[in-house]
Amino acid sequence: MVPPTAPVPAPARGSVALRATLAGVVVSVLLVLAIVFGSRLLRDFDSALLPYAVATVFLAFGVAYRYTVWISSPGARRLFKQGWRSLFSAANFRKAPTALPKMIATYLGFQKFLGARSHARWAAHQLIFWGCILAAAITFPLTWGWFTFTSASGSGPGYEMRIWGFKILGFDALSVVGWLMFHGLDIAAVLVIPGASYFLWRRMKDRGAITGQRFGYDLVPLIALIVISVTGLLLTFSSIFLHGGGYEFLAVLHMVSVVFTLIYIPFGKFFHIVQRPAAVGMQLFKYTSRQDEQVFPCKRCGEPVDTAPYVENLRGTMRDLKLDFDAWAEYCPRCKRVLRGTAYLSHVKKGFK
């Protein structure tokens, strides 16, 4: 078993806020420099997209700030250190060279753990996830001026896609490739709308979801995703079928919804997108421990609880949080219930007649 470690004192709140602010400023400055140099000193930067670019800078500050605050707590810090130690461990790679890419694909990409709860929720989450990934992969580089699409002949239909000024791909705007290039955001919207709508419908109908939901935390993110997606599709509809009718109003509405969502991400439910990769390291930590057969048995019944390093890591976190019942981590869930029931009968129930 891994030897117990001394409790880690929680940092002062003021020092955490200062470190988080400095981290946010540094990351924001680095992003601004990346935008300036990536757009070739703003030559490829589209001034019409300035509000989006400014919102991404606020997003970078918020993510760095919130992430620094998050990993400053004892439990998250232990998870963070152990997870990244497992990710960059040469020993883990030698023992299980395919474990990391497999977990990235199943845990981050396809999120199989959600399928065990509900196939419908898993499918809806996948629609939102891949739709947002596609939208981010297109929107961010375009907003920063890293990607540009220019007409090869000046009159079309030939176009060139350039990254940082270097030609990557030439395509015909009237071809299938050209259609996919110019309608990638529409495809993303078509993926996001049914996924977000399902979760919104579920939060309106499911009693379990209704009792614990909060409007700003649970409903606003879904509404924001739907508004962004619908207004984006309406922009395409306006340009194709209405000859630009109402385009300016829709463009402003779309921009406001996107900017609001980007600023909201670090301080709302979407922050779990940033937290999730750190959990992959912990899953790898548990997996490689099982490969070494370091399974911790329940102290009462002998059934396996989890890997021995994971149990000790959990006990260390509980000690850091000054919880005086860290020894309970050494019991399986069933024995915990039995012990709680026994304690209730011995110390509480006997006092009643």
Summarize the structure.
The chain has 353 residues and is mostly helical.
Model description:
Strand 1 (147-151) and strand 2 (158-163) form a beta hairpin. Helix 5 packs antiparallel against helix 13. It is built from 15 helices and 5 strands. The model has no long low-confidence stretch (mean pLDDT 83). The strands form 2 sheets. A 3-stranded antiparallel β-sheet has the order 1-2-3. A two-stranded antiparallel sheet has the order 4-5. It has helices spanning 13-38, 50-72, 74-87, 90-95, 99-109, 112-115, 119-144, 176-182, 184-205, 207-212, 215-241, 247-264, 272-291, 308-320, 333-347; strands at 147-151, 158-163, 166-172, 295-297, 304-307. Helix content is 67%, strand content 7%. With 353 residues, the chain is mainly α. The longest helix is centred in the middle third of the chain and has 27 residues, at 215-241.
pLDDT averaged residue by residue: 83
Number of β-strand runs: 5
Task: Work out the radius of gyration.
Answer: 25 Å
| Biggest pleated-sheet summary | 3 strands, antiparallel
Beta strand %: 5-15%
Structural topology:
Elements: H1 13-38, H2 50-72, H3 74-87, H4 90-95, H5 99-109, H6 112-115, H7 119-144, E1 147-151, E2 158-163, E3 166-172, H8 176-182, H9 184-205, H10 207-212, H11 215-241, H12 247-264, H13 272-291, E4 295-297, E5 304-307, H14 308-320, H15 333-347
Antiparallel strand pairs: 1-2, 2-3, 4-5
Helix pairs in contact: 1-2, 2-12, 3-13, 3-14, 5-13, 7-9, 9-11, 11-12
